[in-house]
Structures are given as structure tokens and as C-alpha cells.
């Protein structure tokens, strides 16, 4: 089991920056990739970004490419999502997830463990 806990969400103005974190514990050695997803009430969970822990390769959704950056601190077992130039359409609950079998996946079903999410609200 891997436990994930997001933090750092909040309410910001459009154009602002925000960094959210995901602290991992448990059997983290089995993780091959970490990802960030987001969800708005009434809509499906949407892929945001992922990073392979094996190669360091990253992949971003078109909607956030160039504005968001996924990174990690191995010593702290923490993954970050730096979000710049935020837009109202970025408003969502953001979830981190880990996979032990897949890298580079945009599908939520390929991730084994999930955090409870942290809300991000961007006002215009």
C-alpha cells in the first residue's frame, strides 16, 4: 500500500501561481510513476501531468503544457505540481496518484493509489 496526501490548494486570482504537494508513505519503493489529475463536480477525472520515477520523463495535458510543472523531492518522498498563469478553468480538486505498473499513462485506471485531493479555485 502507498498512502498519498495532497496539500497546498487554495483560492487565487487568475494569473497567479500556486504549488501543490503530494507526500507519499508506505511501499513507495514499488512506485514507477506519479501523476496529477483534477476533477470538477459532475465531470470525469482529467489527466494533468505525470512523471516516470524510472526515467524522469514527464507528460502534460495540452491544457496545462508550458504553465504547469511536475517535480519531486526523493528525500522527502514528495511530488509537486507548480502551477503558473492560472486560469479560472483550472479550478478543480487536484489529486495525486501513483502507479506500480505503468509509466507515461494519462488514464486514471492505470494508477493504483490516490490521495483525497486538494481544492484549487481560480477567480477572474
How would you sum up this structure in a few lines?
The protein has no helices and eleven strands. It is mainly beta and 124 residues long.
Secondary-structure blueprint:
Elements: E1 2-7, E2 10-13, E3 18-26, E4 33-39, E5 46-52, E6 58-60, E7 68-73, E8 78-83, E9 92-99, E10 113-114, E11 118-123
Parallel strand pairs: 2-11
Antiparallel strand pairs: 1-3, 3-8, 4-5, 4-9, 5-6, 7-8, 9-10, 9-11
Any key phrases for this structure?
124 residues, mainly beta, 52% strand
- The low-pLDDT segments are none
Give the fraction of residues assigned to helices: under 10%
**Overall pLDDT confidence:** 95
Structural class: mainly beta
Report how far the terminal alpha carbons are from each other.
40 Å
Question: Any overview of this molecule?
Answer:
- It is built from no helices and 11 strands.
- By secondary structure, it is an all-beta fold.
- The model has no long low-confidence stretch (mean pLDDT 95).
- The protein starts with a strand and ends with a strand.
- β4 and β5 form a beta hairpin.
- It is globular, with a radius of gyration of 13 Å.
- Strands 2, 4, 5, 6, 9, 10 and 11 form a 7-stranded mixed beta sheet that branches. Strands 1-3-8-7 form a 4-stranded antiparallel beta sheet, with no helix packed on it.
